[in-house]
Amino acid sequence: MHQQRSNRRDFIKMASLFTAGLTALQFPVWANSVFALEYPLHNIPENKGIDPKWARSLYTRGEETAYFKSKNEFKYIGMPVGGLHAGTVYVGGDGRLWLWQIYNETFEGAQEGIEPKTVNWNDGTEVRKIRARDGSAYIEPAIANNKRILEQGFAVKAVVNGKTFIKELSEAHWDEIVFKPAYPIATIQYSSRDFPLEVQLKVYSPFIPLDAENSALPSTILRLEIKNTTNSHISVSVLGWMENGANKLTGKINTGRRRNEVSKAENSKSIFSSFEAATDELKNAQDSGTMCFTLHNAKSKTYASLDPWPVADKHFNTAVTTSAYADAPEKLVGGIEVTEALSPGKSVKADYSISWHFNNANVQLQKIVKNAEQGFHYAVRFKDAGAVSSYLQSNFEKLTKNTELWVKTWNDATLPHWFLERTFINIDTLATANTYRFADGRFWSWEGVGACAGTCTHVWQYAHAVARIFPELERDLRHRVDLGIGFKEDSGAIIFRAENESRPAIDGQAGTVLRFYREHQMSTDVTFLQANWPKIKKAIQFMLDQDKNGDGMTDTPMENTLDAVWQGEIAWIVGLCIAAARAGQAMAEEMNDTSFAQTCQTYVANGRKNMEQELFNGEYFIHRPDKVQGRKELGSYNTCHIDQVYGQSWAFQVGLPRVLSQDKAIAALKALWKYNFTTDVGPYIKTHIGGRPYALPGEGGMVMNTNPHNELKPFGENVSWQLGYFHECMSGFEHQVAAHLMAEGMVEESLILTRSIHDRYHAAKRNPFNEIECSDHYARAMASYGTFINACGFEYHGPKGYIKFSPAWNPEYFKAPFTSANGWGSYTQKKNGAKQLHSINLKYGDLQLQELAFSKIGSGAVKSVSVMLGVQNIPVQLNQKGAELRITANKKINIKTNESLNITFS
User: Fold this and answer.
1) What angle do helix axes 731-743 and 662-675 make, rounded to 10 degrees?
2) Residues 6+ apart with CB under 8 A from 814
3) Terminal CA-CA length for the chain
4) Helices (H), 395-526
């Protein structure tokens, strides 16, 4: 989970969790019982008290999420709207941009988090100091109005019947503002009784699944549309402004001057912002670079410099200037204005963009990742912010069309709006200062913004979103890092933080084996697997070798994501290794490596049998202590641990056969629901102290590890600082469980758990776009995409041309988006009398299929199938096994953009 144990110990010391051990703690009388001195009583109620009507509402489509000025919901909103790996730029609820964490200052121990700060938190027994990496932004979220680093905004002027009306696009100027957060596009609507126009603003950076290059532009697009809703003719002017942000942090007195220059292209006008530095040191500063503010319309007025605010009518009539200077630290703000006469019912559109280019990586980052020395990937493509803007202009229609097409495709579904939002939203991590792509193309990440280096395997293996949306990033990470920089040729070990560590982690190793299989599946052919198979095989063998006694249950003490080296046979690690071995078998079979496939198969068979016999206590899976060490060291032992059947959860993500029996897996999930999930964590965290605040009193969640049978010393004789983790609600782990619940048919529990997370991040309480664990925008939270995959019953194998859909609910009419190796689109299935209709509509790219699987809807026998690609009939064979309907074509079917494959079962 985290990198430096000393930092974690510091946290626990501050939490006053341990003095001479847990026996030193005194607990109060509760519920007429006295707590054991060693550990407090389990106090999560079995009856969750959930309103059945509310639970039923979670299944329904509902309304798209909207946040309102009138409900005071804008304080914390910050949607990332910059390109991938280009720093963090937030758009707030009223459409103004804030934060501007684009200056490469984020670093562990200094500039962690969205807002590096320590806050006070009363945990129910004492007031504790909480740092950014421990969840300070959960207690006190960053406030937009406190982090408006650069002057930026818009004003709209209307002249009607001789009267002039001016409003800025900011919260104070409007009766109502509505913010709709369909990531990656924020749509903001403005209305007032005293203003004769309807105003809408769309804010985003180009975001096109399967196109990592065009989704990683250091830029933000702002698309204004203003409609005349009166019966009068109106002269409408839009003024946009942007501060010169070059050397914003280092530009002190006598260090140089800021410069704005206007440039014109065929269909655009721009203000190019730079800094004329007095010293070489300033030229090499982290915030040394350029910005560009552009209107993608040549019919405009440009102002290289504007007077201070507030905006008044004079700003729309100031003198046009083409260049301006300001000595640092004075601000220099430029503006671009467009004017148009609007007839009744007509609209004017104004497309602006802001681009930036700051290519000097943090010096501290360069010390731990040598790739950072050459700067960032976007700077290889673009020499400065003006070049970024020119690229946007040349490709504006394609970039905006495909981004908006994806958002439409994603949201054109029968799944609930809130569910689509929460399961997708965490991919915004890629558009924050948590991730980097260096000049040589290498992808690198913290765990959370500025905390815990090295694209950690045992964290990122939970994160399913990137591999499905930008698979090329994950394939490169597997090849370049896991089988390159972080690979030990002699043993096959994968160092879990590459050059930032020296050890493998057993869960990271197993999870990465599963990721090798997933990345193969998300490829168009076998090239990835073939090229990497020798090393992948070594990595699998290393994992198998950690089973010392040959029973298929790994038992070698090794680092794991809970930052400890646990002794014995641990259900969640054993099961994860079994799932990874099964993925190894599948890959070996595809490589015709029959001997190694048999080795993996034997491991899986032994492991499954022994895990189910030895580690299942009749209710849930446990941690069997080491025969020599016993329960001396920290472990989960007979307690109920959140990841206990994680291996089976992973298996569903890549379409593997079951690695655990269904009855025992479901029993374990039911135990987690019974013992670990609560609609109010308050009573639990008040008595089980030491955890970090990722869920607060009054909020629901699933606790990491509980002691339902009130054992004495449940987590070992000599517990260590990591015990604090057991008392927390970490959303990445919760999403993993929600995904598994969905796959096993426990749909309602899955929805309730996911909704609990969603409600914890409601805009009235904190930023909906920032799920927090160890610092902000935590990578593990991208596990949420796995819940979406299982809701669709989606499986895919690109090289085989295989796809499957089996919706978890509403099979009679279901519609959802999907992505594949080289294309994405929309899938629909319907029941129509005695027939069932399935349609794959490709919106982007191409898709090759040869084998397709669906589930039978309702009763009645299926006797025939028809497959049509447009007007072309495709011959197929039908094979029905139970409720599964599988069809196979004689050769691959090539579906192109805007084509549909229609399947009819009769």
Assistant:
1) 140
2) 414, 805, 807, 827, 828, 829, 830
3) 51
4) 396-411, 417-424, 457-460, 465-469, 471-477, 506-521
Amino acid making up residue 769: F
Burial of 729 (0-12, 13-18, 19+ CB in 10 A): buried
In 3D, which of 248, 442, 425, 439 has the Cα closest to residue 326? 248
The percent of the chain in helix, strand and coil, each rounded to the nearest 5, is: 30, 25, 40
Place of tokens 């924050």: 432
pLDDT of 838 higher than 80: yes
- Comparing CA positions, the residue from 490, 540, 485 lying closest to residue 515 is 540
∠ CA 259-148-77, nearest 5°, is 140
> In this structure, what token pair is assigned to residue 904?
């009819």
802-804 and 835-855 beta bridge pairing: parallel
Q: 37-47 pLDDT, tens per residue?
A: 468 999 999 99
CB-CB contact of 127 with 121 (8 Å): yes
CA distance 650 to 54: 30
d(CA 514, CA 213): 26
Taking the C-alpha atoms of residue 328 and residue 307, their distance in angstroms, rounded to an integer, is: 16
> What does the alpha-carbon distance between residue 34 and residue 40 come to, in Å, rounded to a whole number?
9
Bridge partner residues of 349 (DSSP): 225
Average pLDDT, the chain: 93
- Which value, to the nearest 10 degrees, does the dihedral of the CA atoms of residues 701, 469, 362, 280 take? -150
Q: How far apart are CA 563 and CA 52, in angstroms?
A: 39
Residue-level pLDDT at 33? 29
Residue owning tokens 């945990």? 123
Instruction: Extract the tokens encoding 838.
Output: 């399935």
Mean pLDDT of 361-366: 93
DSSP assignment, residue 382?
Answer: -
User: Contact at 8 Å (CB) between 244 and 291?
Assistant: yes
pLDDT tens for each residue of 210-269: 999 999 999 999 999 999 999 999 999 999 999 999 999 999 999 999 999 999 988 899
Q: Is the pLDDT of residue 309 over 50?
A: yes
Q: Pairing mode, if any, of strands 97-101 and 219-228?
A: unpaired
Strands (E) across 304-395 are located at 323-327, 333-342, 347-357
Cα gap 838→854, rounded to integer Å:
9
Q: How far is CA 190 from the centre of its chain?
A: 29
Residue with tokens 């096109």: 208
- Average pLDDT (764-768) is 97
Interacting residues of 71 by C-beta distance below 8 A, sequence separation 6+: 764
| DSSP summary character for residue 748 | H
Write out pLDDT tens, residues 540-597. Answer: 999 999 999 999 999 999 999 999 999 999 999 999 999 999 999 999 999 999 999 9
Using the Cα atoms of residue 388, residue 394, residue 397 and residue 399 in order, give the sign of their dihedral: negative
**Residue written as token pair 């046009």:** 320
At how many degrees (to 10) do helices 747-760 and 784-792 cross? 150
Distance CA 212, CA 215 (A): 5
User: How does pLDDT run across 704-752, given as a tens digit for each residue?
Assistant: 999 999 999 999 998 899 999 999 999 999 999 999 999 999 999 999 9
Q: How far is CA 351 from CA 223, 225, 345, 788, in A?
A: 4, 9, 20, 33
Domains of the chain: 5-30+33-47+413-791 (1.50.10.10), 148-404 (2.70.98), 793-905 (2.60.40.1180)
What is the rounded CA–CA span in Å between residue 200 and residue 194? 17
Contacts of residue 218, defined as CB under 8 A and 6 or more positions apart, other chains included, come to 82, 83, 86, 87, 102, 355, 356, 357, 378, 382, 385, 388
| Element holding 5 (H helix, E strand) | helix 5-15
From CA 552, how far away is CA 276, in angstroms rounded?
65
Cα gap 143→785, rounded to integer Å: 28
DSSP state of 488: -
Nearest Cα neighbor of 578 from 605, 556, 599 is 605
Place of tokens 């349609």: 839
